[in-house]
Design brief:
Number of helices: 13
Shape: globular
Largest sheet: 8 strands, parallel, barrel
Protein name: Methylenetetrahydrofolate reductase
Keywords: Oxidoreductase
Strand order of the largest sheet: 2-3-4-5-6-7-8-10
Organism: Sulfitobacter albidus
InterPro entries: FAD-linked_oxidoreductase-like
Number of strands: 10
Number of domains: 1
CATH class: Alpha Beta
GO molecular function: oxidoreductase activity
Length: 309
């Protein structure tokens, strides 16, 4: 089976695959303050009520993060900012961030993660420590998502195994019984359906019942994907991209996630209890380009935030 799909930019399928349409319902997308600034009107490109994650990169002022959250919330989107443990100095800083998001943007959702910083800036080094503060529960957060890594994470498991990542997910799975917030796993992006399915099935076999929001890279130039895959430590998928890059004809065409989405959608249709419940897009080739692709393939924000997992 081919791993990647290439087509002329902005081409839409003649008919929408109902399995893909179902799989893309209530998709989410990730932005940063600097990329959000380039979008004149999110309401023109995203379905109303779409969950929008706001990535907090080291060095981004909290004021910029909150301003982006406020803008998106005012436009009717469900805002889920990142809380990267290693760039949060202490409990007081965490409480201040939560208060700012709630006071200015009525945020009630958060993605808790360690963050891409090697050395913690303060008291926190992982998302479990953030969760254990109890501040999110006290503030009435309705959704807490945590990070997942279908291809492992060398920053956490330097030996190439998934031992520490798996142990962290087991802890987070147990933590769901101690919070009123709905929890889910939002993953790093990957490009190949087979290993994604195997990873998701392995979670269930290990008793991890958190629903999975699978990370998918949106349409982009192949060179762009390779750059981000290297930066994000996407190992096996990077090898696939590098192999494709050897073919000049494919190097010049934009990548689209059609085949990986179709394969996952078909698996979901055949196995309704499959624990991947949502698609989370990383718009590496542009927010508008990704949003257009998703909607051309049937994606919509069909489930209100109050009941979405």
């Amino acid at each position: 089976m081919a791993l990647l799909n290439f087509r002329k930019k902005d081409d839409a399928p003649a008919t929408v695959d109902p399995k893909v349409e179902s799989f893309l319902q209530d998709f989410s997308i990730e932005v940063m303050p600097r990329t959000a600034e380039k979008v004149e009107d999110f309401r023109a490109i995203l379905p109303a009520g779409t969950r929008v994650y706001i990535a907090h990169i080291e060095g981004t002022p909290i004021e910029d993060m909150v301003a982006t959250a406020k803008r998106l919330a005012a436009d009717g989107f469900n805002v889920m900012p990142h809380f990267p443990a290693r760039i949060i100095k202490d409990r007081a800083t965490l409480a201040d961030w939560i208060a700012r998001y709630q006071g200015e943007a009525n945020v009630r959702q958060a993605l808790l993660l360690a963050g891409g910083v090697t050395t913690p800036h303060g008291d926190f080094s992982d998302s479990m420590q953030l969760a254990e503060t109890g501040l999110f529960d006290a503030a009435g957060f309705t959704h807490l998502h945590v990070a997942g890594h279908p291809e492992g994470n060398r920053d956490i498991d330097a030996d190439g195994t998934t031992a520490n990542v798996d142990a962290a997910l087991r802890w987070k799975n147990d933590f769901q019984s101690r919070t009123d917030a709905q929890m889910a796993i939002a993953t790093q992006f990957a490009f190949e359906a087979g290993p994604i399915i195997d990873w998701a099935d392995s979670l269930r076999a290990a008793g991890i019942t958190l629903p999975v929001h699978i990370g998918i890279a949106g349409p982009a130039k192949l060179q762009t994907l390779i750059k981000f895959a290297i930066a994000c430590g996407v190992g096996p998928s990077l090898k696939v991209l590098q192999k494709r890059a050897m073919d000049v004809t494919k190097l010049l065409l934009p990548y689209e996630p059609t085949e990986v989405i179709e394969a996952l959608a078909a698996h979901k249709a055949a196995h309704p209890d499959f624990n991947i419940t949502h698609v989370h897009f990383f718009p590496l080739g542009g927010i508008k380009t990704n949003a257009t692709w998703a909607q051309n393939h049937g994606g919509a924000a069909a489930v209100p935030a109050a009941v979405a997992s």
